[in-house]
Amino acid sequence: MDRDELVLMRDVSIDFHVDGKSKVEIASERHLSRFRVARLLTTAREMGIVRISVALPEEAEDLSGPLAQALGVPVTIATSHSDARQRRDLLARTLAHIVRDEVREGMTVGISWSRTLETAAPYIDQLPPCEVVQLVGAQPVEGSGDSLGLIQHFKGLTGVRTWPIWAPLTVGDASTAAGLRAQPQIADALRKADELDLAVVAIGGWSPQSSTVYPTLSAADLSTVEKHHVVGECSGRLFDADGRELDPSLEERVVAVTLDQLRRTPTVIASGFGRETATAVRAGVRGGFVDMLVLDTDCATALAELTATG
After folding, report:
1. In 47, 168, 173, 216, which residue has its Cα 20 to 30 A from 142's Cα atom?
2. What is the pLDDT of residues 116-132, one digit of tens each?
3. What is the domain partition of the chain in residue ranges?
């Protein structure tokens, strides 16, 4: 059986067992006969592709244990999928499940923004009474929402009090950013970041594809930033391979939580999506502002390769 058939078998199994689609829906969406869909599902069970989780045979080795041992933090790896959008959705579901399990009544919880966090939000349909703090200003991304929209989701949950940041993530000059940070409501939210019990963030690599900040910068900004050997960003904060926060002029123009505030937070859950974020994820752990990792299989595989080579 060739790999394409195995991949199709896995993806159809996820459609059926995880997403709850009927065989008729799967057949229609994938342009297959209902008979073939049924045969793929049966063969997947016989081959062990469908177990407690859904994975290809070569994905049977669980990398979470070796990665946790190598990095020194708990690692959870979401179910894989050949389609990137589906893979992000599966990562978001896994992240949402962990967040629901970690939040306790009375906690102060910080929420950053990323495509994965935005996708995860609808799966967090209830929380115990707590406070939720927006950790970053709004950074509109084509085809996605922003952090203000995300905090409004949590505002709608019963028993949740929210602390929004009514400002952009980055502005044109340092004085404007300082003025925004001094605004009472924004200042209150940023001070709340000193009282976090739990933070949920995303790690982005430093490239147009893996960072929501990179595409918004001017050529002059990028030229300045590149001199600092950036490997990744978290909540708009740039860092090097050892997770040290860098101090280019861009930092003064950011309205967001700092990496030092995250380091002081008892538990920081960080998500990582895609191979290109692996170096940044490792740097985040090295920098001491990540306590738990939730990764997709591509990021986990690349991270395992990095840790194997030191």
Report:
1. 173
2. 999 999 999 899 999 99
3. 3-55, 61-308
Could you tell me the maximum CA-CA distance found in the chain, to the nearest angstrom? 65
CATH among 3.30.465.60, 3.40.50.1360, 3.40.50.300, 3.90.550.10 for 61-308: 3.40.50.1360
> What H or E segment, with its residue span, contains residue 132?
strand 130-134
Cross-strand pairs, 272: 203, 295
Residue 208 neighbours by CB distance under 10 Å: 11
Structure tokens at 284: 């985040």
- CB count in 10 Å sphere of residue 217: 16
Query: pLDDT digit string (tens) for 189-231?
Result: 999 999 999 999 999 998 887 887 787 778 888 888 878 889 9
pLDDT for 27-48, tens place per residue?
999 999 999 999 999 898 888 8
CA distances from 117 to 39, 59, 92, 125, 126 (A): 36, 25, 7, 13, 15
Cα distance between residue 264 and residue 73, in whole Å: 16
CATH number of 3-55: 1.10.10
Q: Show the tokens assigned to 171.
A: 């502005």
What residue has token string 């995250």? 262
Residue whose C-alpha is closest to residue 127's, from 95, 107, 161, 100: 100
